[in-house]
């Protein structure tokens, strides 16, 4: 696949945390020492993106022996992570440079507590392997897909600017997160099942005709997926704890699931497995999502405990 490096922009990584309403002027007082017994009762809820902080800390062997528990919630990009932080669903998270700007404009309840600098050479604009496009200037008049408010969005704007282009010279197509996919058509199923690859097939979406007269082709928005899971994820913790009791080495739960147009989850895969006690437990505890005019949405979500 042909790729082009981003030009003359600095990608910054920021740590954010939800914050409450200030009760006075000046900086907050530094809290006193906390005993090991008290720390053992603490669970830190951390937002991450796939292949992000958790992967780095695990590779560096820095997650062993922490005096408190960590619950990881994986997000598709920075904007939904910051929305969760603003809502108090997570305590901290790491994002790129652009999402906090959009979040601040929306008056999100977040605070930047640390900033780092990364190598912009890793940023790229991707095109198909047989594309005739060879440089940024050749993007003029073309359609570019990007996640709105993400670091990639900011990087793209800088790349266009440095090539003498602006958003008026291209068409931006704001993409949903890749974890939310359209599902194949078929009859509505009110019952759940942990098996059957047909549930997870990703063809055309013909609509849920049993609940919506004409049957639409809508899918659930990734933001709705994130918000619903962050609100109800604690209901899945017992499933992970039970599995850890059976297999002490298990600390992660990666869930692929199918949400029907009725909002009910009809099938799940847990850590790639379609059946078994772990998957059955998760299926029975999955939340109900908002109804929508479509047959199904295939989505994924993950969490871990240390």
Number of helices: 8
Strand content: 15-25%
Morphology: globular
Total E-strand runs: 13
What is the CA-based Rg, rounded? Answer: 22 Å
Our measurement of the CA-to-CA distance between the termini, rounded to an integer number of angstroms, reads: 38 Å
Approximate helicity band: 10-25%
Mean pLDDT: 76
Series of H and E elements: EEHEHEHEHEEEHEEHHEEHE
Broad structural category: alpha+beta
Instruction: Report the uncertain regions.
Output: 1-16, 18-24, 177-196, 203-214
Number of domains: 3
The largest sheet is:
9 strands, mixed
Describe the structure.
- This protein is α+β, with helices and mostly antiparallel strands and 306 residues long.
- The protein folds into 3 domains: 3-7 and 125-174, Periplasmic binding protein-like II (D-Maltodextrin-Binding Protein, domain 2, 3-Layer(aba) Sandwich); 12-22 and 37-118, D-Maltodextrin-Binding Protein, domain 2, CATH 3.40.190.10; 181-305, no CATH class.
- Helix content is 23%, strand content 25%.
- The strands form 3 sheets. Strands 2, 3, 4, 5, 6, 10, 11, 12 and 13 form a 9-stranded mixed beta sheet that branches. Strands 1-7 form a two-stranded antiparallel ribbon.
- It is globular.
Record the SSE blueprint.
Layout: E1 3-5, E2 11-18, H1 36-39, E3 43-49, H2 53-59, E4 69-75, H3 78-86, E5 92-95, H4 99-105, E6 110-118, E7 124-126, E8 143-146, H5 151-162, E9 171-174, E10 181-182, H6 222-232, H7 237-246, E11 252-260, E12 265-270, H8 277-285, E13 296-305
